[in-house]
Task: structure prediction
Amino acid sequence: MKWSSNLQPQTESIMIPSFDYKTPKTLQEACDLLQEAHGKAKIIAGGTDLVIGLRNGDSNPSLLIDITSLKELRRIEETDETLSVGAAVTHSEIASSPLVRQYGIVLSKAASEIGSPQIRNLGTIGGNIVNGSPAADTLPPLIVLDAIGKVISRDRERNVPVAQLVKGPYETSLKPSEILVGVSFKKLSQDIRSGFIRLARREAMAIARMSIALLLQVQEGKIQNIRIAPGAILPTPQGLSDVEEFLKGKSPDEEVLRIASRKVSEAMIRRSGIRPSAPYKAPVVEALFLRAMRRALEGQDETGRS
Amino acid sequence: MEITIKFTINGKMVKVEVPPHWTLLRLLRERLGLTGTKEGCGIGECGACTVLLDGMPVNACLVLAPKVDGRSVFTVEGLGSRDALHPLQKSYIEHGAVQCGFCTPGMLISSKALLDKNPHPTQDEIKEAISGNLCRCTGYQQIIEAIEAIDKDVRG
Ligand SMILES: Cc1cc2nc3c(=O)[nH]c(=O)nc-3n(C[C@H](O)[C@H](O)[C@H](O)COP(=O)(O)OP(=O)(O)OC[C@H]3O[C@@H](n4cnc5c(N)ncnc54)[C@H](O)[C@@H]3O)c2cc1C
Ligand code: FES
Ligand code: FES
Result:
């Protein structure tokens, strides 16, 4: 489903075409159903993208497979080194999870700003990834966290970096028989700061709903490590490695940040092609980057961490 | 083709036959006669269709009926009746928070969801709680005041 923040009046006269609906109780059963449907089934999680898509006739499945009862997809779990979040965990659950706040605050922050309370109670992280919108808010945090997606089908299991799961706008590398089970990332250590900034929905009406996620490690006044990923700016989720390289080893003073912000907008224009909207977007992207850097430098997003 | 689902609606167990492609909103309005819940946009943007699903506010226009099987749904009809208004309903009326009334059922449900888990919300928490509910008439201030007044009542 492609969504915009414009209010489009619709009526019940636009009916959803009919389909069969199954709620498997085990992952194995879900995989079997999907395999046997030979591409005619679709997975439904929260349905916040899919139901609108069905109404719009974007797809016409004969079967919906509801994965929200599968316990493997509903967990937030930690090991010594990693944190994993099940694909069917909702944005509300992510935003209120102490584990995510502690080890991946950049993701909690993004989840807490999605849509509205109603949307966050339904929408899941897996749906957000697989829908593949360039404006999906969990993607920039997952990119800077180098998150890995776990994907399963009846005969195979594989791990794919989230950056490679989304191939283009509304296009993923998942096969019709595959289910995203969850994502995992290395727990952030206490000395890594994060910043997430997005244009609020109201501000975002006129232009795309841009955002910036970043992780930052400063030692003795110098940037040791940095990861930057913009949202709703590039056709696929990706980090800005050239800007990251520029910043490494430098002290984050005004001048350096100003040059870096230029590089961010240049990278955006270079990678997304010059569109008529680029001249309007450039200063907004630069300002967003500077705000996210400031948040990270001042540790404003860290308040929830113990 | 219809499927049978069982769920709790405003505290009462019901069993209904419903086509799986119906939304919860349509099921409530067209099968169960519960027309308090409104359809505004039909695409999750306006909040007029807000109901509680297992205690949490959701957009009924985005929930397919089979999803509520075995769960509990709460609508504005469960809040109060004409003769026995819920304190929130009284407060909305007293504060002029109801004008055309189209957004009101959804607003009341979002307000209830907030107060159920946070009886003493701040102005910002109230604004956040109703951020998924659009109102074209009031400019929101009266609604915020109506919710705040409940808080004060509880505190005494
Ligand atoms: C009013 C409104 C506001 C919104 N605001 C925002 C916002 O601010 N930011 C934002 O990022 N998004 C927003 N969204 C979009 C949407 O809510 C999110 O993308 C949400 O996370 C989608 O998750 P879901 O569980 O509802 O997905 P669904 O609609 O259930 O599924 C989406 C797609 O993913 C597939 N899928 C789901 N789970 C899996 C899985 N585990 N394995 C394989 N395939 C799967 C489905 O088949 C479908 O194609 C908004 C939507 C609405 C209606
Ligand atoms: S009718 Fe459901 S949100 Fe508008
Ligand atoms: S009172 Fe008219 S929309 Fe809110």
Notes: The longest helix of chain B spans residues 141-155. The domain at 3-78 of chain B is CATH 3.10.20.30 (Ubiquitin-like (UB roll)). Chain B touches chain A through 37 residues (CB under 8 Å).
